[in-house]
Specification:
The protein has about 290 residues and is an alpha/beta fold. About 45% of the residues lie in helices and about 15% in strands. It folds into two domains: about 160 residues, Trna Endonuclease, Chain: A, domain 1, CATH 3.40.1350; about 120 residues, no CATH class. It has a five-stranded mixed sheet.
Length: about 290
């Protein structure tokens, strides 16, 4: 019986975030621990009445404290460019390439600290402990990693259902396989989807059964955007191309309320693609039905 697109789309989820999605605290603490000694040295500047001179003296004795500075500004890069009425200057905090050496450098870094507001942060006791402050900054920076973690959540979810169905990693299912790897391993002609070998596509998973090779793509979109329309169109093309290949089937697992904004393009793909499924389909045992 033909499936109804509207009913299928209505079952899409708002989110698949797990408890580790929001902040990777292990990574946060690891990053802060790597500079904890230097942060504690800089703590001696908190409340200083002569912070510029104290800072220059501190850098002269412990120049490695400079590697903490970018994090205090929530910057990942070691090179920070700043420009004002006195011109522009590149500050390098990569101690492997450069370290402060002499009064001219000390003066420049003190100028940087003053004009970025870091001296004010320390001198006026706006914070009490740089280790705690850095932990907060790292936590904020790590929130930017949610997009990458979110991208893996759907992969992990699909993989869990593949395993529950009895498939074994690197034996009957494989992660992140390129077209040329599939071709070499099973001697199958995939030129129809590789533009005669000119395009190298990678599938999130490949499942191998006795009579079929399944190339699998997974994604979850919690919000809309132009990328969804592009994805729907490209997967429609891929589905039509794979229909011409004996022994190979393209399967797409997707979900997320973001598809609501691109429902027309998704419906076009749904209409021509037999093997497009959502999380509800996974929960209802679709893996065992299609991978035979």
């Amino acid at each position: 019986m033909a499936r109804d697109f509207n009913s299928w789309l209505a079952g899409f989820r708002d989110s698949i975030a797990d408890y580790g999605y929001y902040i990777d605290f292990e990574k946060v603490h690891r990053n802060v621990d790597s500079i904890k000694v230097e942060l504690n040295i800089l703590n001696s500047l908190i409340g200083s009445k002569n912070i510029k001179e104290d800072f220059k003296n501190l850098v002269g004795k412990y120049h490695e404290v400079l590697k903490c500075i970018p994090l205090l500004l929530a910057v990942r890069a070691n090179d920070i460019y700043c420009q004002d009425e006195n011109g522009g200057y590149m500050y390098n905090f990569n101690l492997g390439k450069h370290s402060a050496n002499g009064s001219a450098d000390f003066e420049r870094y003190a100028y940087f600290m003053e004009h970025t507001g870091l001296f004010d942060l320390l001198e006026n006791h706006i914070i009490n402990n740089l280790v705690d402050y850095a932990t907060g900054v790292e936590t904020g920076l790590d929130s930017n990693g949610r997009k990458n973690r979110g991208g893996h959540l759907m992969e992990d979810l699909v993989e869990s259902f593949i395993k529950k169905a009895g498939f074994v990693k690197d034996t009957s299912y494989f992660k992140e396989m390129y077209i040329h790897q599939i071709t070499d391993k099973w001697n199958i002609d995939l030129s129809a989807i590789s533009n005669k070998g000119k395009m190298e596509k990678r599938f999130d998973f490949v499942v191998k059964t006795e009579g079929m090779i399944y190339g699998i793509e997974t994604n979850f979109y919690s919000s809309g955007g132009s990328k969804l329309n592009e994805t729907a169109r490209s997967y429609k093309t891929l589905a039509l191309e794979t229909n011409t290949i004996n022994g190979f089937t393209f399967v797409w697992f997707t979900d997320g309320k973001g598809w609501t904004s691109a429902r027309n393009n998704l419906e076009e793909t749904f209409d021509v693609m037999d093997n497009i499924y959502n999380i509800k389909d996974l929960e209802n045992g679709i893996i065992k039905e299609i991978f035979v």
